[in-house]
Amino acid sequence: MATLTELALTHWEDSCSAEQQNTALQALEDGHVVLLPQLSFDMQQEASLLNDISTMSGKTKSISWDAARGVRGQGDAYDAGLLASMLERYAVQTRTLLSNLLPTYASQLQQGNTSFRPAEIAGRSMSWRKDDTRLHVDSFPSSPTHGKRILRVFSNINPHGAPRVWKLGAPFSQVAQHFLPAMPKPSAATAALLRWIKVTKSLRTPYDHYMLQLHDRMKADLAYQAQVEQYTHAFAPGQTWMVYTDLVSHAALRGQHALEQTWLLPVAAMGDPAKSPLAILENQLGRSLV
Ligand code: SIN
Ligand code: FE
User: Fold this and answer.
1) Domain boundary assignment for the chain
2) Which residues of 1-32 are buried (b: 16+ CB within 10 A; e: fewer)?
3) What is the rounded distance in angstroms from the CA atom of residue 274 to the CA atom of residue 190?
4) Which residue lies with its CA nearest to atom 1 of ligand 1?
5) CA of 248 to the centre of ligand 2 (A)
6) Which residue, 227, 240, 241, 245, is the most exposed by fewest CB within 10 angstroms?
7) Among all ligands shown, which has an atom nearest to the Cα of 115?
8) Could you read off the pLDDT of 67-110 as tens digits, one per residue?
9) pLDDT digit string (tens) for 121-137?
10) 117: Cβ below 6 Å to ligand 1?
11) Is the beta carbon of 250 within 6 A of some atom in ligand 1?
12) CATH number 2.60.40 is the correct assignment for the domain at 4-285
């Protein structure tokens, strides 16, 4: 089961000892959460973004930013310039952190979306597929990763002392063993069609098929949700944590105001590629998936 490994970094630019680097690499690849309890994201002129916004739709999970497309999903609720400056700063700071803490990854990391999550999680009405209060592993329906790892950094920036409460579940190999037997096989024709009608931005490989099935089947199965081993952890405001969300069963139960940065990493850049979801699925299915 996932546990938390704490590191005492206090600044995004802190240099890290070889021991800290090794601890972080092993913990992440083994499916644990690396918690940086003293590393906070300082709000500058963007503090006004934390005022409660009544005009934002309750269905909005997050507001995204990336360098190419700018801010998406803010509606009229926020100043796009302020959002962009905050999210870009978070992207830069998390990159600095990862280059110091995980130097063997640094040159291979691909920057994904940066997100601001201003809505209270508890009580939000979501379709089951979008409901992150249910344990799941991450998989992006329209953006296949082709096996690349999804490494995410989160910071709780709640100004009112509210923790962000997560659940962590069973190890990936057990999740796969539980759900793989009943899963439909991937279809090359379906993958080609989804690509052609632009439902997916690139071809959904067999790997992406199985990961999406895992995400959906975990969330849809309420008996599994109730019975699987799990524990709850509260991340306090001012804390930062990182985790491979493609590997680690996780759910977010309550909390408001967080930042998140997604990084993608080729499996070959891992310390031990055999610990990737790709290798674990290939091993259990006895076939190549990309
Ligand atoms: C998730 O990745 O499932 C949600 C995590 C969060 O917003 O805290
Ligand atoms: Fe998730």
Assistant:
1) 4-285
2) ebeebebebeebebebeeebbebbbebbbbbb
3) 29
4) 132
5) 9
6) 227
7) 1
8) 999 998 877 778 889 999 999 999 999 999 999 999 999 999 99
9) 999 888 999 999 999 99
10) yes
11) yes
12) no
3-state secondary structure the chain: CCCEEECCCCCCCCCCCHHHHHHHHHHHHCCCEEEECCCCCCCCHHHHHHCCCCCCCCCCCCEEEECCCEEECCCCCCCHHHHHHHHHHHHHHHHHHHHHHCCCCHHHCEEEEEEEECCCCCCCCCCHHHCCCCCECCCCCCCCCCCCEEEEEEEECCCCCCCEEEEECCCHHHHHHHHHHHCCCCCHHHHHHHHHCCCCCCCCCHHHHHHHHHHHHHHHCHHHHHHCCCEEEEECCCCEEEEECCCCCEEEEECCCEEEEEEEECHHHCCCHHHCHHHHHHHHHCCCCC
233 lines ligand 1 (CB under 6 A): no
Per-residue tokens: 216 = 């959906």
